[in-house]
Amino acid sequence: MSSNLAETVAQELFNAYQTGQMVAQPPSARAGFDLETAYAVEGSLMRSRHAEGHRSAGRKVGYANKAMWRVLKLETLVWAHMYTDTLQFSEGSETAIRIKNPRSLKIEPEIVFGLKQPVTGGDAASALASVDWMALGFEIIDCPYPEWKFQPADFVASFGLHAALVVGQKVPVTSDRLPSLVEELAKFKVRMFKAGAMVEEGSGKNSLKSPALCLAELGSAVARRFPDEPLGAGEVISTGTLTAGHLTTASDRWTCEVEGLALPALTLTLA
Predict the structure, then answer these.
(1) Helices and strands in the chain, H and E counts
(2) Residue 209 sits in which domain range?
(3) CATH code of the domain in which 249 resides
(4) Which among 46, 96, 172, 203 is placed 20 to 30 Å from 16, CA to CA?
């Protein structure tokens, strides 16, 4: 890994993030840019965000679909940090958000976990034992690359495409609920509506067969790559989209409803 390459790419992507400019070509088009370099870029971007006064608030995942790993030569999912200024908690069932410097936005419904203790891997039940609360959420992703064409390393290097995460009503995860939650998280369904019309039905299976399994896999992957930075108490974890990502623009109104899991519906309008 070239530290010079990582710092050069980090500066370019941070400038693009601040200005809302597109990036002419993804970093993976450069010789030597791989996933290790991408995580070095992600770390540099995190330091730049911290320097601006924005604390790391948690992590979001990408490629939570094992069917894609062999094609993309991945051994596990990938991730990037989220920040205090990109995380929004909804006080009710409906909220609005404004995205600064948008380029090409998509919206994704996801299960969000709030952690009460570190997660370093294990099965679904042990991962859920580290969870304080869960919620339905909308992640807004923003792609700086032309035509949404990129590789996993490009995803990691550009904040995981993260623009914002809107978190719905929190539901406590208590020890007596763990056995049933393991089952429910593998089977529940969601329905996405745009302006009242259903767009797509999704499932918990789309997040690595279960958002709980996705959390466990993320804990293991982070611990292997960054053993000194495991998933920790207080982090908010967004576990991957439950449907396809849908292009969205200002004034769009989206609602996600859940079946088979006791989470309230969430409605979001892009201001």
Answers:
(1) 7, 14
(2) 3-270
(3) 3.90.850.10
(4) 96
